[in-house]
Design brief:
It is built from 2 helices and 51 strands. It has 619 residues and is mainly beta. Among the domains are: 102 residues, Immunoglobulin-like; 96 residues, Thrombin, subunit H (Beta Barrel); 170 residues, no CATH class. It has a 5-stranded mixed sheet with strand order 47-8-50-49-48, with no helix packed on it. Strands 13, 14, 15, 16 and 17 form a 5-stranded antiparallel sheet that branches. The chain is elongated and about 105 Å long. The relative contact order is 0.13.
Length: 619
């Protein structure tokens, strides 16, 4: 009797059956003939097994490094979890000197990767920017200098967001937080110099908006809409509640309520004034401007101790000019000598400056009227859905734009009546939508619904245009008679075919579309989280973007002068494009989208082949 069969007949415990099965598999592995080959020099070997009819059976080696010399590799006779049937098989092996990933550039400067810009503030040293939502690999708050150099970044939890920002006396106040608090449900503080958290007196990080109201008070707002902080006072506007709440900036204590027309965007500036009971005696005061429903600009002058509204005024702007953001500059000793920068909503999408003494006539205008176009070549002198404004120490205007395609923060000069566009920063497009590289120009790529051009010297991307605002789950390029076509697969509905007419300009295509060309290389996800670079005949050459504990067998070469962190454990869903000259480029990334070149493929060459027999006795 076969000793393995006798073993199973005499041992009946379930655990022992498993041990018997493992023993059987071990005996089978020893019965399979090892494969022998020789390497003239060190390299990475991939070896496949094929059936007698030439069909692929399994991978035995997947880019394993061998020194020069004679080698022998054993295998277990198993493919896809089952024993291969007895018979004759052939094996083939290839070798390469090593593959390398070279970073060529990226799309996305910094900030949130799941929501558009939502907040801005500035002091004498930095500019502070916020995004409505960011994943765990991105940032909801970023501090930079006026030149755009990052000073620190901030993120909380798996998902966090920032609804509004304000800075006062070295403290950055953030209206937002984790999860549901991202939309203005909590207020917390950061050290403006380092970005480290500052706790409230009770030791908590968050001051929940719901904690401001008595427990038995019904229908109280759970979120604040806008915020300003000045001279130790926090001003929170609640548009639907028709009131402004005043809090102590150090303790979070509720100080006062100002009720009136529905308040929106708000800003405050420290000043001095006298009071009716003490004429000619100057005391600390705040001058507040706010957006009111119906295109009105509200102005308040109030003193601190006790809080007393000294003067108030409503000034209507031009018809239909909705105010979506505002920021003030001026002489702190003379509240009437301020200018207020106003962000205008649809259909204008512009920023105007007006004197508080004469709000009828703009003294400054930035951005072309009408805002961004929905699709087509990029125009950087147009804004869209202005969410917040900040004026830095150099007098430049920073605009957080609420349009998600692309997620842009723009910077404008203010030294003339017409604001001149200065520069722009784009938040990462994230990995929720696919990215792809142009089939004829590796410096051009599509990510986040836009087309970008990579500068290979700096790595930064310039937006060329908005390709499509339609959410898509897949995309591919096709080339026909020198015409470049883009095929989009929406989440729902039929494919959309566009033809590239120029930089960032894609027009509907109604003609035929070539079928996808079989690629000589592809990326295949591995159980360990890495991606295998695999040839058309199933040779797995190398694993890239491995998770912790599964290091990729590649190197990363960075552009000179660019400081970059290590590749993260996960790289989203990478895509691969092979150029007509054979060069291979990849997109990857969960936050920023990288443009990478895969090199070393020119060293790929056949190594050896042979035959092997799996005898019937193995079974």
């Amino acid at each position: 009797m076969n000793p393995i069969n006798r073993y199973f007949k005499t041992v009946s415990a379930p655990g022992m059956r498993v041990c018997g099965l493992l023993l059987m598999m071990a005996l089978c592995a020893r019965a399979v003939e090892p494969i022998r080959f020789h390497t003239d020099k060190p390299g990475y070997v991939s070896l496949n097994l094929y059936r007698a009819d030439g069909t692929f059976a399994r991978q035995i080696l997947t880019g394993k490094r061998f020194a020069a010399g004679n080698h022998e590799t054993s295998w277990d006779g198993i493919a896809d979890g089952s024993q291969l049937p007895p018979g004759d098989y052939t094996w083939r092996a290839v070798i390469h000197d090593g593959l390398s990933l070279h970073l060529r550039g990226w799309v996305g400067d910094w900030g949130g990767d799941l929501g558009p810009p939502s907040a801005a503030a500035a002091d004498d040293d930095k500019v502070y920017l916020g995004w409505s939502l960011a994943s765990a690999v991105a940032d909801s708050v970023v501090a930079c200098d006026p030149a755009g150099n990052i000073r620190w970044t901030h993120h909380r939890g798996a998902l966090s967001g920032c609804h509004a920002l304000a800075v006062d006396a070295g403290v950055l106040f953030v209206l937002g937080g984790e999860g549901a608090n991202a939309e203005g449900g909590a207020l917390y503080k950061l050290n403006a110099k380092y970005g480290s958290p500052i706790h409230w007196p009770d030791g908590s990080t968050d001051l929940k908006i719901t904690s401001l109201w008595p427990a038995d008070q019904k229908d109280s707002p759970a979120q604040a809409d806008f915020m300003s902080v000045k001279n130790g006072r926090i001003y929170l506007s609640f548009t639907l509640g028709n009131f402004i709440a005043i809090l102590d900036a150090k303790t979070g204590a509720y100080l006062q309520t100002i009720v009136g027309s529905p308040p929106g965007a708000i800003d405050s500036a420290g000043t001095k004034c006298d009071t009716p009971d003490k004429p000619n005696v100057l005391v600390d005061a705040d001058f507040i401007t706010m957006a009111l429903k119906g295109g009105e600009l509200g102005k308040l002058l109030l003193v601190h101790d006790p809080i007393w509204v000294i003067a108030s005024e409503h000034t209507p702007l031009d018809h239909d000019q909705e105010i979506t953001a505002l920021s003030m500059i001026g002489d702190g000793a003379k509240h009437h000598m301020h200018d207020v920068f106003i962000g205008l909503g649809p259909p204008f999408h512009q920023v105007q400056a007006r004197s508080v003494l004469n709000t009828d006539v703009p003294t400054y205008t930035a951005g072309k009227e009408g805002g961004r176009i929905s699709q087509g070549a990029w125009q950087n002198d147009r804004m869209s859905f202005i969410r917040a404004l900040a004026l830095d120490a150099e007098g430049k205007l920073w605009v957080a734009e609420g349009d998600a395609t692309p997620r842009r923060t723009s910077v404008w000069m203010t030294n003339a009546a017409e604001g001149k566009f200065a520069r722009e920063f784009f938040a990462p497009p994230g990995s929720t939508s696919p990215a792809i590289i142009h089939p004829l120009d590796p410096c051009v790529m599509i990510a986040g619904g836009c087309e970008w051009r990579i500068d290979p010297h700096t790595g930064r991307a310039t937006c060329l245009g908005i390709v499509s605002r339609e959410p898509v789950r897949a995309m591919r390029f096709a080339v026909e008679n020198n015409h470049v076509l883009l095929v989009l697969t929406p989440l729902d509905g039929p494919e959309i075919v566009l033809e590239r007419a120029g930089d960032g300009d894609y027009q509907p295509h109604t003609g035929s579309v070539p079928a996808p060309t079989p690629s000589k290389l592809q990326l295949i996800a591995s159980p360990d989280g890495s991606w295998q670079v695999t040839t058309a005949d199933s040779f797995a050459l190398a694993g890239i973007f491995g998770k912790s504990g599964a290091k990729p067998r590649t190197t990363l070469a960075l552009p000179p002068g660019d400081e970059w962190p290590h590749l993260p454990d996960a790289a989203g869903t990478p895509t691969l494009t092979q150029m007509p000259d054979g060069k291979v480029f990849l997109t990857a990334g969960r936050s920023r989208i990288w443009n990478l070149e895969l090199t070393g493929l020119a060293t790929l060459r056949p190594l050896a082949d042979g035959k092997i027999t799996i005898p019937a006795s193995v079974h």
